[in-house]
Each structure stands twice: as C-alpha cells, then as structure tokens.
Amino acid sequence: MPLFVDGQRVRLPRSAAELVRAHPLLEERARLLRGQSVQQVGPQGLLYVQQRELAVTSPKDGSISILGSDDATTCHIVVLRHTGSGATCLTHCDGSDTKAEVPLIMSSIKSFSDHSECGRLEVHLVGGFSDDRQLSQKLTHQLLSEFDKQDDDIHLVTLCVTELNDREENENHFPIIYGIAVNIKTAEIYRASFQDRGPEEQLRAARALAGGPNLSTSPLAEPPHFVEHIRSTLMFLKKFPSPENSLFPGNKALLYRKNEAGLWEKISSPGS
Fold first, then answer.
1. HEC-encoded secondary structure of the chain
2. Are the beta carbons of 123 and 153 closer than 8 angstroms?
3. Virtual CA dihedral for 15, 137, 208, 212, nearest 10 degrees?
4. Which among 17, 141, 161, 252 is most buried, taking Cβ atoms within 10 Å?
5. Tens digit of pLDDT for each residue in 137-165?
6. What confidence tens digit (pLDDT) does each residue in 160-213 have?
7. Do the beta carbons of residue 208 and residue 52 sit within 8 Å?
8. Residue 93 CB neighbours (<10 A)
9. Mean pLDDT for the chain overall
10. Which residues are 189's β-sheet partners?
11. Are 163 and 17 spatial neighbours (Cβ–Cβ below 8 Å)?
C-alpha cells in the first residue's frame, strides 16, 4: 500500500481517530493545528480556492505565494506537496467525485515537478466534523482510500478531520477549523480566514451552487456569513440566468493576473 505515516505503511482504519491512535505524531500535529489562532489572510499573493476548485503552483511562481480555502464544514481541504520541487496543490473537496479528484490532484503536482528531483509527496487533510449524517466520516474514508490506491508513495503528514476537528456546543457539533492556508515557499500550513475570494467570486460560487443538490450539508454548522454568501450567489444567478451568453459571449474566457501590488486585475474581457 502506498500510503505512509511516519515511514510506516498504513492499513486503512475505520475512522480518523483510530488512525491517529496508531500514529501518535498525527494526533500531536492535529492538536497543534487546532490550537492555533486564526490568521486573517490579505489578498496580496493569495490564490483563494472555492468548493470544487483546485489550484497548483510552485515556489518559482512570482505572483502567488499563498493558497487557501475556508468555509469547509463537512468538506475537506486537501494539500498535496512535493518536498523536492515545492510544487503544491490545494483543493476543497465536498465528496461529489472523490474518485476523479484524487488522480487530478496527483497529475497536477506531477505537471509542476521535475521527475529527476529528489523528494517525496506529502498530503495534509483538514476539515469536517462529527455531523449527524456522517458525511464527513464518509469523505475522510474516501480520500484516504483513493490516495492509498495511487501508484506513488504518499506520506500522510496532517490529519485533522471529522472527529479530530469536532467541538460540541449545546449538544450541537461544529468544526473547529473552517479554513487553512499554505505558504508555497515555506510549506507552512496554518488556520486562516479570507475576506478576498476573487477574482469573480460570485461567478465561481454560482458554478459550485448550480452543480450541487443542496445549499448546505450542515446548516447549523455554517459560518456566520454563509447566509449572505448564498443570498448574493442566488442574486447573481437571477441577474445572469444564462452566463454562457451574457458573461462569455463567443465562448471567450475571463482572464486575470496578479499586478505588482499582488492584487487581481482583469487583462481580457469577453468583448476584446
């Protein structure tokens, strides 16, 4: 089996808690991550990843220095990094198609890595909680199973998911960590929240919302701004019921780049 923890091959457990009991260093890393204060991450050098999105870059990137995502309730945020090249991928998985997502994560890292470089693949899984429908538990098992099926050796470094990321308040369960960021150059992973989720935040959110059957898998556990986020996304869909015609005439892409100040700016419009 190609999934390793602290140099030992892993047998897939029934739960995340069972896995950390077998590997105490995983439990210690999860405890340290949970104990961090949440850092507010600004827009400079940031590439924000929404639900069902994937981003990959390397330390050679002069524009992007941080990948991040938040608002994960039953969802899991996955970071895969090659220690030799520093190529780093972050994705926000909701369990809609884990079987396809994990090979895509693997291939994205390989496309940014030189095969001759020494190093290993390290994976970090964060998110979810002890929800009533056990959607988090299901997603945790799916991700571990799919990484275990890959041809390459993968080293599980961080596991802070489901029951390991759970807190209880008034008999209701909530995630402890909703979001994380990863520094591309230092490989540091830390608790984070984000005010800037651009570019085209509403358009990207509308795409994810239109592709799923539910507004939320865990309404009680959503962050305070969730309702406003859904409202603005629905208003966007109402304003642009056929975005392929109104926003992408001629099937032309919307293109953005980071400017010298580290902020997104549009470099192409559908009509140009």
1. CCEEECCEECCCCCCHHHHHHHCHHHHHHHHHHHCCCCEEECCCCEEECCCCCEEEECCCCCCCCEEEECCCCCCEEEEEEECCCCCEEEEEECCCCHHHHHHHHHHHHHHCCCCCCCCCEEEEEEECCCCCCCHHHHHHHHHHHHHHCCCCCEEEEEEEEHHHHEEEECCEEEECCCCEEEECCCCCEEEEEECCCCCCHHHHHHHHHHCCCCCCCCHHHCCCCHHHHHHHHHHHHHHCCCHHHHCCHHHCCCEEEECCCCCEEEEECCCC
2. no
3. 140
4. 161
5. 999 999 999 999 999 999 999 999 999 99
6. 999 999 999 999 999 999 999 999 999 999 999 998 887 877 777 766 665 555
7. yes
8. 26
9. 87
10. 182
11. yes
Cα radius of gyration rounded to whole Å, the chain: 19
**Per-residue model confidence (pLDDT) at position 271:** 45
d(CA 104, CA 55): 11
Contact 177, 160 (CB under 8 A): yes
Give the pLDDT band of residue 17 (cuts 50, 70, 90). confident
- DSSP lists the bridge partners of residue 266 as 256
One-letter identity of residue 13:
P
| Residue whose token pair is 């009680």 | 220
Rounded to the nearest 10 degrees, what angle do helices 226-239 and 201-210 cross at? 90
Distance in angstroms (rounded) separating the CA atoms of residues 84 and 107: 16
